[in-house]
């Protein structure tokens, strides 16, 4: 028995965006009935997290935007600043709680939509469609039948890959006693941080005002650090590099994003599809996901309305994935200087062209022009090497999702009291 035309498993960015697009009125066919399955309160429900992307003002989700910036900055290790103003684009920040509230308010008024809470144990093909099996928050068994199922749950294991780096980070929402931030600009990459032996590290600053900002320490490297190391490095960045002075940590978050040239299958059965990060929506060389999630959702909704099999399209073209594979391998092997690589790209490429490239929407000639700004010899060596490398299963079975952290005691852990890391702590 079918409970709906479509079941969407998971109410993160991918699941909510897809449910929103599927149930919008209009089009040549009736709006499909949709059930959105959310994890019940507990460890299976993702913690609040931050998503960022760029687009012009007046976007679909502007009501959930916490802040936006028209200026983007990258800082070289020596402190030199590269600033871009990609008008009409703005860099926008959304918090997951606000995004969920906005989308649930929209969905609540749409006919054919229903939301349920359940821990999903299995998604599989069934007779004439697919089935979702799980357990409700009250412990009762739940079975949902549908023509199509879109599953956004994280994979338990990465597909085989030639290169895997991890983007791992910890961020503090800081409130300072005196003005310490420039609210006009987002600092995308500040390379005035201790660099690991493999990969790179940088600071990331999203000002919410002159005295408030999300400040993160981020690494692209093979291994994550322990919690104390993140706090030391983040405290060092806030105190010694940014000079924020006395400040209070009002919230904290942490996460790990796989950066890999693995191929993510988007179809898990005749009627079961993967979406979001599990469906390859994360850009391998940067970790950005939100824009690709929206593209996937729009394409799936268009296919459903046209009566086609709604296989999610690739989030990025084969050319984009090939270029990312080269960058990841060269960075992992130490053939390129990561801070210099990204600083030069931002400094020598027109801002709008570079942002189109980072979104995977640039044209061939634009990609070639950007490629000429990179270390050509190192890239060509890597291009020649990649076809000879086997794809191997990764030894990690799972990657932690973003988590909310306990707010540090301001009396015990204010940023100005954290010591800079010593030589040993700088190594991953």
TrEMBL record:
Q: Name one Pfam family in it.
A: Lycopene_cycl
**Keyword Transit peptide annotated:** no
- Keyword Isomerase in the entry? The reply is yes
What GO molecular-function term can you cite, just one?
isomerase activity
Protein name stated in the entry = Lycopene beta-cyclase
- Broad enzyme group: isomerase
The domain of life is: Bacteria
- Identify the species of origin: Streptomyces demainii
EC number(s) reported in the record: 5.5.1.19
Instruction: Identify the stretch(es) annotated as Disordered.
Output: 405-428
Signal peptide region: none
Keywords noted in UniProt: Isomerase
